């Protein structure tokens, strides 16, 4: 199953936890970027017909309907099996949802992150729980019923009780898909950099410890399973049959074409990456009609464990796998980090929390 990823890296404000190459830009840059994006898609040599489309960001829900229509018209394959648009609460209306549906979009991913006012205020988000509830109703009224809600464990001021409040909202709103991320603490976000410096800005001093965030992640696994939303990938949970077809292709090493700033592509044999920043992307598109800045030969057999072991279904083990990785598998089994059942290697619940360390062992 092949797919398309379209990057629209513009937002109304830059959230403190965000470590993506996205943010606020001038109207002129956004407009020029949209034109370049359409050119890049139309110039692509399609070797297959895409079955999934994913518009990520940034906040692609900010795109005016005519601009969105031009971008989607350039992508072959409509009606797609699955076509997702990411949306920030506060940018969704029933009219917009009807326009999205008419353009072939059939799934919406809401970047909620928290339903608790104090946590949201610390991140710079402007919405409230009531906003999310209202917009979920608007999406359903328009006929868009495939809805994902993003949550982050580990935000400043978050407590076990407030995390439980966010999970209670999931039970009330009944989405068919939920993504749960543990806050990434690194230098690429303002909040992460402040936490690493032991500073106080952005509520950094009130961010919970890493082991607390891990505990709340496990709490989410249990609470979501109790309402029929099962984990199928480390950060992704769905009701049976509602898994993200587009995202599954990343973990199953299926091909996809990426367009826009910081977009990546994989055709089964090669990986390509575009310039990260929108201004650089636009300059390269104008200068040479391509924003690709890196191309490498892919090694699916080398990458298979690193990506596919993220899935709850695990990785099927061949005789060659056993010959190559028997020491690692044995060590992780003894440590209670993986299991081998029906010929498949899977992470245990404890293994999920140490997954990055485990993945590295299969890259050597």
What is the count of β-strands? 15
Principal-axis shape:
globular
Q: What structural class do you assign from the helix and strand content?
A: alpha/beta
The first-level CATH class of the largest domain is given as Alpha Beta
Per-chain topology:
Layout: E1 3-8, H1 27-43, E2 52-57, H2 65-73, E3 82-87, H3 94-102, E4 107-113, H4 117-123, H5 129-142, E5 146-153, H6 160-173, E6 177-182, H7 190-196, H8 210-226, E7 230-233, E8 236-238, H9 245-251, E9 256-259, E10 264-266, E11 270-274, H10 278-288, E12 292-297, H11 300-308, E13 315-316, H12 319-334, E14 338-341, E15 344-347, H13 349-353, H14 355-361
Helix pairs in contact: 1-10, 3-5, 6-8
Give a structural overview:
- The structure is a single chain.
- The protein has 364 residues and is an alpha/beta fold.
- It has two domains: 3-251, Transcription Regulator spoIIAA; 301-361, Arc Repressor Mutant, subunit A (Orthogonal Bundle), CATH 1.10.10.
- Helix content is 41%, strand content 20%.
- The protein has helices at residues 27-43, 65-73, 94-102, 117-123, 129-142, 160-173, 190-196, 210-226, 245-251, 278-288, 300-308, 319-334, 349-353, 355-361; strands at residues 3-8, 52-57, 82-87, 107-113, 146-153, 177-182, 230-233, 236-238, 256-259, 264-266, 270-274, 292-297, 315-316, 338-341, 344-347.
- The protein starts with a strand and ends with a helix.
């Amino acid at each position: 199953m092949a797919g398309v990823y379209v990057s629209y890296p513009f937002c109304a404000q830059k959230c403190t936890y965000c470590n993506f190459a996205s943010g606020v830009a001038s109207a002129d840059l956004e407009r020029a970027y949209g034109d370049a994006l359409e050119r890049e898609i139309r110039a692509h040599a399609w070797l297959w017909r895409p079955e999934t489309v994913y518009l990520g960001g940034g906040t692609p829900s900010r795109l005016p309907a005519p601009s969105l229509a031009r971008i989607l018209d350039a992508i072959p394959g409509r009606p797609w099996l699955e076509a997702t648009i990411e949306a920030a609460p506060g940018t969704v209306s029933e009219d917009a949802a009807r326009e999205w549906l008419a353009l072939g979009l059939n799934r919406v991913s809401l970047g909620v992150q928290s339903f608790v006012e104090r946590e949201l205020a610390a991140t710079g988000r402007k919405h409230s729980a009531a906003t999310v509830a209202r917009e979920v109703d608007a999406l359903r009224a328009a006929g868009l019923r495939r809805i994902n809600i993003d949550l982050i464990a580990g935000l400043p001021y978050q407590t076990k009780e407030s995390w439980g409040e966010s999970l209670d909202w999931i039970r009330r709103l009944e989405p068919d898909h939920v993504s749960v991320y543990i806050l990434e603490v690194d230098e690429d976000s303002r909040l992460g950099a402040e936490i690493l410096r032991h500073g106080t800005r952005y509520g950094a001093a009130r961010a919970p410890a890493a082991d607390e965030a891990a505990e709340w992640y496990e709490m989410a696994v249990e609470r979501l399973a109790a309402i029929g939303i099962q984990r199928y990938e480390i950060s992704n949970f769905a009701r049976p049959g509602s898994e993200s077809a587009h995202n599954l292709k990343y973990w199953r090493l299926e091909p996809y074409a990426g367009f826009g700033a910081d977009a990546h592509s994989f055709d089964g044999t090669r990986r390509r990456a575009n310039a990260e920043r929108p201004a650089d992307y636009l300059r390269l598109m104008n200068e040479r009609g391509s924003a690709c800045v890196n191309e490498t030969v892919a090694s699916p057999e080398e990458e298979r464990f690193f990506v596919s072991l993220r899935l709850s279904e695990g990785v099927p083990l061949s005789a060659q796998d056993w010959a190559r990785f028997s020491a690692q598998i044995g060590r992780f089994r003894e440590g209670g980090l993986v299991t081998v059942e029906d010929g498949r290697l899977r992470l245990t619940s404890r293994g999920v929390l140490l997954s990055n360390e485990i993945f590295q062992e299969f890259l050597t």
